[in-house]
Amino acid sequence: MSYEEPFDIITFLKKAVESGASDEHLKVGYSPFVRKNGFVLKTKQPVLTKEELDSAIVEIAPISIREQILTLTDVDFMYEIKGCSRFRVNYNRQLGMPGLVVRNIPYQIPKLKELSLPDVLYSFVEYPNGIILVTGPTGSGKSTTIASLVDQINNNSSKHIITIEDPIEYIYDCKNGIVSQRQVGVDTRSFTDGIKYALRQDPDVIFIGEIRDKDTMEAALKASETGHLVLTTLHTNDAVQTINRIVNMFDESNRHLIRKQLSETLRATIAQKLVYSKQNDKRYPACEIMVVTPTIKDYIVKDNIEEIYELINDNTIDNMISMNTSLALLTERGCITEEEAIQASNDAQELEKMFRGIYQGTKTYYE
């Protein structure tokens, strides 16, 4: 993709969105980069100077920090080009020079069906309380999946949904219910405060942008125990890693109590990654889904976490699905090739056995 001179941040972002890019990277001394279908691509834009990048940052920075932003480090904020897209912007410094990393946030929130996610996710948003965790590495589609779950509730239930985000990404209209969106640092001091005061605002559902520390996790557990459905994200790769990460946030002397609390409040985990199809030139979500059954509750309490893998691998139990089964299904449907699935797998040997005929999955997850 090519861009006209001189560098103009608005023109650049508009063309990046038109090209289908998901992210933009700007740093001094280099041409801008964009990320498309998971790959970082160099543009034909001329090399950026410090003056050009400083000017771009000041142009899109919020009025509240515009005058001092060039003296700051590591700032997140939202920017919008009307009729084009919203953007989550990270301003940072690299070797003393300014840099920008921009994530494109579309206006339109996709439906769960449009994301090719398993139908079992529809049942997750019907839980009256508890915690649902969407996990995965950066750029795995967590925000989009959570937004689709929130929008599903918003469209079909007469409930009050409170979101606590840093910064606010997708914007929700009030449809069948009410959606109140609060930004950390603007509308509330912290995630912990946001959750604390949300409990006094008559919520049914609370969406927490990310669990970053023990205090936020404690507040989320409390909210789920007091009759609310909590949706949130973690940067973990699978259900076992997710449970271990939560438990290990706490002192060892308290971990048995946290395991008991988590066993009573956790409803499901959705670990996902996006797999690129060269033939179709797009990415597809592969998911590991764990539904908390009585057996899994028992495993969590007794700290037999590793045994959860075996239950998830048994695809006949409560609509659970392993990541390899999800990859095999995507291959079976012609979305990705076997080679692409194996490259994306955390257990390539097991997946190769599935492809050789040992696979005993079912198509019902995506039908």
**Spatial extent as radius of gyration:** 22 Å
Compute the average pLDDT: 93
Termini Cα gap: 37 Å
- One letter per element, helices H and strands E, the order comes to HEEEHEEEHEHEEHEHEHHEEHHHHH
The helicity comes to: 25-40%
Given the structure, what is the number of helices?
13
What is the strand content? Answer: 15-25%
* Beta-strand segment tally: 13
Outline the structure in words:
With 367 residues, this protein is an alpha/beta fold. Helices cover 34% and strands 24% of the residues. The strands form 2 sheets. It has a 7-stranded mixed sheet, sandwiched between helices. The protein has a 6-stranded antiparallel sheet with strand order 3-2-1-6-5-4.
Tags for this model:
367 residues; alpha/beta; 6-stranded antiparallel sheet; 13 strands; disordered C terminus
Describe the structure concisely for a colleague:
It is built from 13 helices and 13 strands. The protein has helices spanning 9-19, 50-60, 120-124, 142-156, 191-198, 214-225, 239-248, 255-265, 294-301, 308-313, 323-332, 338-344, 348-358; strands spanning 23-27, 33-36, 39-42, 75-81, 85-94, 97-105, 130-135, 160-165, 178-183, 205-208, 229-234, 266-277, 282-291. α11 crosses α13 (348-358).
